[in-house]
Amino acid sequence: MGGLARFGVSIEDDLLKKFDGLIAKKGYSNRSEAIRDLIRKNLVEKEWDEKGEVAGGIAIVYDHDKRELVNKIIDIQHDSHDVIISSQHVHLDEHNCLEVVIVKGGVEEVEKLADTLRSLKGVHHCTLARATTGEKL
């Protein structure tokens, strides 16, 4: 990170009040930290839009009693070893498991993996958390 630059921002009073409320709720120490975070968030979204290399996490909740489903999830993960860099399996209760898969690769590969997992019969929930490799921030 280089030096810091100062600049002014013009903003409507009502919007500033809402922003200050958000800052307090999220626990930012000041407006600058919140603005930097918003900029980074938009840069990460841009990385995904540009179809470059990205990182993220796929969270899957499913019924582990369905052995065929469990085997499909395992097979898909093995077939995607070039994109998956880590996974964690958690037993939520007697029947439901949460699998968190950490991914790094091209946007299309990562989204295809998430879509494939999401479309499996017996998956209760599947979500993709978009993150960044950090190289473009």
UniProtKB/TrEMBL annotation:
UniProt remark on cofactor binding: Binds 1 nickel ion per subunit.
Gene Ontology MF annotations: DNA binding; DNA-binding transcription factor activity; nickel cation binding
Keyword annotations: DNA-binding, Metal-binding, Nickel, Transcription, Transcription regulation
SUPFAM superfamilies the UniProt entry points to: ACT-like (SSF55021), Ribbon-helix-helix (SSF47598)
Residue intervals of the Transcription factor NikR nickel binding C-terminal domain: 55-129
Top-level taxon of origin: Bacteria
GO BP terms in the entry: response to nickel cation
Residue intervals of the Ribbon-helix-helix protein CopG domain: 6-43
InterPro entries: Acetolactate_synth/TF_NikR_C, ACT-like_dom_sf, Arc_rbn_hlx_hlx, CopG, CopG/NikR_regulator, Ni_resp_reg_NikR, Ribbon_hlx_hlx, TF_NikR_Ni-bd_C
Ligand binding (Ni(2+)): 78, 89, 91, 97
Cofactor names: Ni(2+)
Classification via NCBIfam families: PRK00630.1 (NF001884), PRK01002.1 (NF002169), PRK02967.1 (NF002815), PRK04460.1 (NF003381)
Function statement: Transcriptional regulator.
Family classification: Belongs to the transcriptional regulatory CopG/NikR family.
Protein name: Putative nickel-responsive regulator
Species name: Candidatus Desantisbacteria bacterium CG_4_10_14_0_8_um_filter_48_22
Lineage: Bacteria, Candidatus Desantisiibacteriota
